[in-house]
């Protein structure tokens, strides 16, 4: 939308710039670990002479650390300028990537990965980017979130194959050194130059809409300023809300399985089915491509259709994909399964963000989003569970069976719980 200035000349809505920025950050931040670790997984096993369970433990603990620190990050995002939080987190990540190049044994590798990747990701990833979109968009929030976070899925299309090439030419250590250079030379300057906290900072209004008439502004529900509802009281409000727990339960069973899939699929393809690492990277690319569509489709559905129907469509995509993994070893069928998995995952981040913004409003968004991530932390151990089952049974098939049961339970719970529609939203 074009904003008309006081002089009558049109001015582009600045929120679009931030949507492009969030897209770019999602692409880069997810490339560094989310879309690299599956390719690096067998390399780490060889480097440190560890089995699937121990490498899976490193990944799960890294994800778990991020989930545990998410409430603090959410508080900081509501309390301090988003630009400052992202910059500090980016510097922390860059330091960790440089240190990974020096890790001589598994314990050092594990400690660096958990301390730097686990804690730094929350400040540059979706938690920060969704905060910007919630600040800048109201009427088109679902679509804005879907487009902004689409960078994660675009990275999923191209980066697995790129990372496979980088690992062959630079090694996984050299690749992380390159990641650190990208953060210092590009991510931090871009953040300092582009990020603005809210439309009022540039004399605009959410969605690029004109200023509401005085009467409408006077009658609009008041929003808490950051800090006015701080401390334990606001967290007690979240924890006593049945709606909050309905979202925790609904997404708890699904949240970590995608991480398990992209972490273990390359190892499954190369060790059990006999394909090479490039074949596996193409599957991750397909999952990323379908996730792009999922973000757009599910974002649109959240803006226009029933919330429960939207979530159930995601559950169905997940379950169908897992059943294909169980029933077929044909590459074309597995490609379809990877696509459906990506489709389901792609929609869940914008769906979850829209749901909690509807339940608790814009001013409290990052705090409740961070708290939600904390309670979803146990889902990060899907990576470990999958690796452990594969080691104990000698095959990933048993793990796929467990995934299928989890998705069936998630579907049953989604039918039973209350999920707010657009008309139920708190401003």
Give me the secondary-structure topology.
Layout: E1 2-4, E2 10-12, H1 15-32, H2 37-48, H3 52-79, H4 82-100, H5 106-124, H6 126-136, H7 141-169, H8 171-194, H9 214-219, H10 232-239, H11 242-252, H12 257-271, H13 277-304, H14 307-327, H15 331-360, H16 365-375, H17 382-393, H18 397-416
Helix pairs in contact: 1-6, 1-7, 1-8, 2-3, 2-12, 3-5, 3-16, 3-17, 4-5, 4-8, 6-7, 6-16, 7-8, 7-13, 7-15, 11-15, 11-18, 12-13, 12-17, 13-15, 14-15, 14-18, 17-18
Describe the overall structure:
With 427 residues, the chain is an all-alpha fold. It has one domain (12-203, 231-424): Growth Hormone, Chain: A, CATH 1.20.1250. The chain is 75% helix and 1% strand. It is built from 18 helices and 2 strands. It has helices spanning 15-32, 37-48, 52-79, 82-100, 106-124, 126-136, 141-169, 171-194, 214-219, 232-239, 242-252, 257-271, 277-304, 307-327, 331-360, 365-375, 382-393, 397-416, and strands at 2-4, 10-12. Strands 1-2 form a two-stranded antiparallel sheet. Helix 3 runs antiparallel to helix 17 and helix 14 packs antiparallel against helix 15 (331-360). The longest helix has 30 residues, at 331-360. The two termini are 21 Å apart. Residues 1-10 and 217-229 have low confidence and may be disordered.
């Amino acid at each position: 939308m074009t904003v008309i200035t006081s002089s009558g000349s049109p001015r582009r809505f600045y929120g679009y710039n931030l949507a492009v920025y969030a897209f770019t950050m999602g692409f880069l931040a997810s490339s560094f670990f989310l879309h690299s670790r599956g390719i690096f997984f067998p390399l780490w096993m060889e480097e440190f002479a560890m089995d699937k369970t121990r490498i899976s433990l490193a990944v799960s603990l890294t994800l778990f650390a991020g989930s545990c620190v998410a409430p603090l990050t959410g508080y900081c995002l509501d309390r301090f300028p988003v630009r400052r939080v992202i910059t500090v987190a980016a510097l922390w990540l860059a330091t960790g990537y440089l240190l990974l190049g020096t890790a001589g044994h598994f314990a050092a590798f594990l400690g660096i990965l958990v301390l730097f990747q686990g804690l730094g990701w929350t400040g540059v990833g979706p938690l920060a980017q969704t905060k910007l979109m919630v600040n800048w968009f109201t009427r088109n929030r679902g679509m804005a979130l879907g487009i902004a976070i689409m960078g994660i899925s675009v990275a999923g299309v191209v980066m697995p194959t790129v990372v496979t090439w980088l690992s062959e030419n630079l090694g996984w250590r050299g690749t992380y050194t390159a990641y650190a250079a990208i953060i210092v030379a590009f991510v931090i300057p871009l953040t300092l130059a582009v990020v603005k906290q809210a439309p009022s900072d540039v004399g605009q209004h959410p969605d690029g809409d004109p200023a509401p008439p005085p009467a409408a502004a006077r009658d609009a529900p008041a929003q808490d300023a950051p800090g006015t509802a701080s401390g334990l009281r606001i967290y007690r409000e979240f924890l006593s809300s049945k709606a909050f727990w309905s979202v925790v339960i609904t997404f708890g069973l699904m949240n970590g399985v995608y991480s398990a899939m992209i972490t273990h699929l390359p190892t499954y393809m190369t060790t059990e089915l006999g394909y090479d690492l490039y074949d596996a990277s193409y599957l991750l690319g397909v999952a990323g491509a379908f996730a792009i569509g999922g973000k757009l489709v599910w974002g649109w559905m959240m803006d226009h259709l029933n919330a429960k129907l939207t979530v159930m469509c995601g559950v169905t995509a997940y379950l169908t994909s897992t059943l294909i993994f169980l029933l077929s070893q044909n590459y074309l069928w597995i490609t379809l399964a990877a696509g459906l998995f990506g489709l389901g995952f792609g929609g869940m981040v914008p769906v979850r963000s829209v749901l909690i913004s509807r339940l608790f409003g814009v001013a409290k968004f990052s705090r409740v989003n961070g708290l939600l991530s904390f309670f979803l932390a146990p889902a990060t151990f899907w990576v470990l569970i999958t690796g452990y089952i594969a080691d104990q049974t000698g095959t990933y098939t048993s793990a796929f069976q467990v995934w299928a049961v989890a998705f069936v339970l998630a579907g049953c719970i989604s039918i039973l719980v209350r999920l707010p529609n657009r008309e139920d939203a708190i401003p």
